[in-house]
Amino acid sequence: MNPDRRLLLNASAALGAAALMGDAFAQPSPSYLDTAEPGKPGDFDFLSGNWKISHERQLKPGEWDRFEGEATCWSILGGVASIEELRIPARDFSGMGLRTLDREKKIWSDYWMNAKFGVVGSEGVTGGFVRGEGVFLSDDMDGDTPIKVLGLWDAITASSCGWRQGVSRDGGKTWDWNWIMNWQRV
C-alpha cells in the first residue's frame, strides 16, 4: 500500500465523519458490492474536466485537517481508463489516480501514486457502481489488525461529486470515514 494511504489508515480512529456529521453518510452493508453493476466503458466520464476540491482529512478523533485542492481528469481509451491529476498547491503536493476497466471481468481497479514517491500502488482497489455510486473495497492491515478500506464516489451530478474513504475494523459492519473530498466543477 502507498505510504500516504498507510498514514491515513494509521491516523483513522474510532470516531468517524459519520458520527461528527450525523446521518450525512450512510453505512454501506457488507454485501454492498454484491449488487455492483457490471463495469462498462465511460463509467468515470463524469470526472472528465477541471475541479476545485475541498478536503477534510481526519487526524485523530474530533480533529480534522481542512484544505483546498484542484484536479484535472481525462477519460481515455474510449472510456476504459480515467486519469486524475490531483494538485494541492499550498502543500506543494501532487498525485495521480488511475482507474482502469477489466473489460472481461467488468470490474474497475483504482490505483494511486504521488509525485513524492513516483510509484503506482502495487494493488489497485477494485469495485464498480451500485445505484449510481462508485464503490471500491480492499482488504488491508493496520499493523496486526485486518481492516477493510472503502473508497466511495457519490452525490454525482454534472457540476459536483463527492469522494470519501472509510475504514472498517469489524468486517464491513461499520465504517470510520477518515477522508472526505467535495468536488466542484470549474
Task: Walk me through the structure.
β8 and β9 form a beta hairpin. Mean pLDDT is 84; it is low at 1-26. The chain has helices at residues 3-11, 17-20, and strands at 49-60, 63-76, 81-88, 93-102, 107-114, 125-130, 133-142, 145-154, 160-168, 176-185. With 186 residues, it is mainly beta. It has a single domain (3-185), classed as Lipocalin (Beta Barrel), CATH 2.40.128. It is 7% helix and 52% strand.
Short description:
The protein is mostly beta strands and 186 residues long.
Characteristics:
7% helix, globular, Lipocalin, 186 residues
**Strand order in space, largest sheet:** 1-2-3-4-5-6-7-8-9-10
- The fraction of residues in strands falls at over 45%
| Parts with pLDDT < 50 across at least 5 consecutive residues | 1-26
Shape: globular
DSSP, total strands: 10
* Backbone CA Rg: 16 Å
Cα(first) to Cα(last) distance is 31 Å
CATH superfamily: Calycin beta-barrel core domain
CATH class: Mainly Beta
What is the chain-wise order of helices and strands?
Answer: HHEEEEEEEEEE
Estimate percent helicity.
under 10%
What is the third-level CATH name, the topology? Lipocalin
Mean pLDDT: 84
- Structural category is mainly beta
Outline the biggest β-sheet: 10 strands, antiparallel, barrel
| Total of domains | 1
The CATH architecture comes to: Beta Barrel
The total count of helices amounts to 2
